[in-house]
Amino acid sequence: MVLSASSETIALGSLDSAGPTAVWLITLSFIFFECAFIFGLFLPGDSLLFAAGVVLASHDSELSAWLLSVVALVVAVVGNQIGYYIGRHTGTRLLARRGGKVLNKENLAKARDFLDRRGFWAIVLARWIPWVRTLAPMIAGAARMDPKRFMLATTIGAIAWVPTLVLAGYYGAGLLAAVPWLETVAVVASVAFFVVGTAFGLHRYRQEMKKPVEDEEVVAR
């Protein structure tokens, strides 16, 4: 699925004005893509979750922020499970791009080495490392990590990752409610940062996909 940067910017630029429904749809869609497919390597998941919390603070109740945290957590786990089984069936041989700035043999080898050294906890910690977050499930699947161990690790990681960022944004913005203009600045800045990050990510994804595939299995050194 390829989206144009212009249409993405228009959709995300209306995030604040569209309200909670748009926040939910955008957040859940992007978290799913980031956790499930290589395309998600270029999406700003951390800033998205934080921005969602900030926007909800000015539009909706505390319950909505908690519910979004729970649902996004589940989506993140499901997405990683899909990424795991993609890696289990395809391996990593088609991921690396010759001359790629992100999708190259060196980065894939580093990610695999990270998993080899830390095992279970690598999957937990990977939630906090942007490019590893997307690659880890595929590499774990390619390495035939035990499915139950992977499921437990990725669930623990999601519990620590999703609610922390959404609620940090929500409660952080709530503290600014006493200064309306500052709250508005926080909302606009959060959404703008996410829009710019997404547009830049899409550009980088297209550039990477234009490069030829290395077409060999990547192993840690």
Report on the architecture of this protein.
- With 221 residues, the protein is mainly alpha-helical.
- The protein has one domain (5-209).
- The chain has helices at residues 5-13, 15-18, 20-36, 45-59, 62-90, 105-118, 120-126, 130-142, 147-174, 180-209.
- The radius of gyration is 18 Å and the shape is globular.
Principal-axis shape equals globular
Strand content: under 5%
Uncertain runs: 1-14
From N to C, what is the helix and strand string? HHHHHHHHHH
Q: What summary fits the major beta sheet?
A: none
User: Overall mean pLDDT score?
Assistant: 79
State the helicity in percent bands. Answer: over 70%
Question: What descriptors fit this protein?
Answer:
221 residues; mainly alpha; 0% strand; disordered N terminus
Summarize the structure.
The protein has 221 residues and is an all-alpha fold. It contains 10 helices and no strands. Helix 4 (45-59) packs antiparallel against helix 10 (180-209), helix 7 (120-126) packs antiparallel against helix 8 and helix 7 packs parallel to helix 9.
Which helices and strands occur, and which strands form pairs?
Blueprint: H1 5-13, H2 15-18, H3 20-36, H4 45-59, H5 62-90, H6 105-118, H7 120-126, H8 130-142, H9 147-174, H10 180-209
Helix pairs in contact: 1-10, 3-4, 3-5, 4-9, 4-10, 5-8, 5-9, 6-7, 6-8, 7-8, 7-9
